[in-house]
Inverse folding.
């Protein structure tokens, strides 16, 4: 069965530090990859997505992620974090073409705490 | 436009009872998915409905069921509640595959179910 691993449970950074959150998935076929964010008390929101094409994708709020097929990875990065980035981040995957998001398989999430 | 609406927001039930949760998708969205979020297991896919038909199902016991109505509203039902069913239940709606590669799943605020 498809699975998603997020390596860090809790990351603590100071403002302006760079961020990289790891994500690996297990399926070897065609996949669609996503990063979602859940701010405290708010609903899940899509940060960015990869269906095909350029493996470096840019999302909202200065986030980007790189799809490395040979490593089954889709790591999330941000050059300089802000206190407002404090949230929980989820990597997710669906299988097949078309970018369907109807049956997302999520990682366990990474809590990011940014110290002002 | 209005987001995904889930009702009720909070629910307390007793072991052995059954519960029905409701989800109204964004207008025009015909795919509705349900997820269970717990601290231990994270976000787990329950099922996806499209045009009143279950399209995908996660690995949950038969006590968990759902349905979708002709107006795309969806309900999920959990029978014979167990303490372990205490969780945040999230609903997401999206455009169906094939209409747009840029489809995005929009999540509701969730229903917090506590089983005592």
């Amino acid at each position: 069965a498809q699975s998603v691993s997020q390596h860090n449970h809790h990351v603590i950074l100071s403002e302006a530090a760079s961020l990289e959150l790891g994500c690996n998935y297990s399926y070897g076929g065609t996949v669609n990859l996503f990063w979602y964010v859940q701010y405290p008390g708010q609903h899940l929101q899509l940060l960015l997505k990869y269906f095909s094409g350029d493996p470096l994708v840019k999302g909202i709020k200065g986030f980007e992620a790189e799809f490395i097929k040979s490593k089954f990875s889709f790591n999330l990065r941000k050059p300089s974090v802000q206190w407002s980035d404090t949230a929980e981040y989820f990597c997710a995957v669906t299988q097949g073409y078309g970018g369907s998001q109807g049956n997302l398989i999520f990682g366990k999430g990474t809590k990011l705490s940014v110290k002002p | 436009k209005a987001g995904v609406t889930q009702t009720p927001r909070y629910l307390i039930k007793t072991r052995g009872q059954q519960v029905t949760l409701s989800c109204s998708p964004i207008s025009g969205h015909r795919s509705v998915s349900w997820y269970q979020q717990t601290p231990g297991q994270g976000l787990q896919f329950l099922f996806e409905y499209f045009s009143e038909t279950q399209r995908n199902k996660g690995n949950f016991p038969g006590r968990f069921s759902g349905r979708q109505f002709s107006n795309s509203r969806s309900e999920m039902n959990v029978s014979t509640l167990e303490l372990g069913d205490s969780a945040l239940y999230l609903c997401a709606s999206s455009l169906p595959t094939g209409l747009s590669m840029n489809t995005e799943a929009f999540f509701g605020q969730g229903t917090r179910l506590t089983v005592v």
